[in-house]
Amino acid sequence: MNAIHLHLIANHIPILGSVIGLLVLIAGFFFNNREVRITAAAILLFAAVGGIVTNKSGEEAEEVVEDLPGVSHDLIHEHEEMAEKAMPFIFGTAVLAAATLFGEIKRKKFARIASLLLLVCALGVSALSGYTGYLGGKIRHPEIDGLSLPTTGNQLEDED
Which of 27, 36, 52, 140 lies at a C-alpha separation of 20 to 30 Å from 17? Predict the structure, then answer.
């Protein structure tokens, strides 16, 4: 597995993990359930670690794809800039998720505050990771914006 494979696989972890973790955390508050908040914190910690792996593998992946035909340097730059904006939220989520896990498991008084701060960070990570992934997808998937795909002679024709 090379950096591109790792980047393409890992990039789904912060996007999906943060949304799932956020929803589970909201449920934990709604039902006032400590175990659900612990589960949410574990999911969000996993999502944050996935975000860090994705970010670290992105530089090497960029080196490979930037010279491919049809790849826009502007799109790569836009994707990279958004990833840099997401990183403080990803690191914050990692720290707050770890603090929430510790606090909830040990029944510390700060656990509720850590969970609330984690909720705010998870909202930011969900939005920023999702948008970063969208921008990354545009690099090699023009169909994301409804652009026509180039046709080749290998496509099947409609039979009427």
Answer: 140
Whether 149 is in a domain gets the answer no
CATH value at residue 107: 1.20.120
- In one-letter notation, the amino acid at residue 80 is E
Q: Does residue 126 form part of some domain? A: yes
pLDDT in tens, 120-146: 999 999 999 999 999 999 988 877 777
Quickly count helices (H) and strands (E) in the chain.
5, 0
* Entry pTM: 0.87
For residues 87 and 79, what is the distance between their CA atoms, to the nearest angstrom?
A: 13
Tell me whether residue 150 is in a domain.
no
Residues 3-58 pLDDT 10s: 889 999 999 999 999 999 999 999 999 999 999 999 999 999 999 999 999 999 99
Q: What is the DSSP string of 117-147?
A: HHHHHHHHHHHHHHHHHHHHHHHH-GGGGTP
Structure tokens that stand for 48 in this block: 């944050």
Q: Whole domain around residue 30: which residue ranges?
A: 3-143
Amino acid at 97: A
**Domain membership flag for residue 157:** no
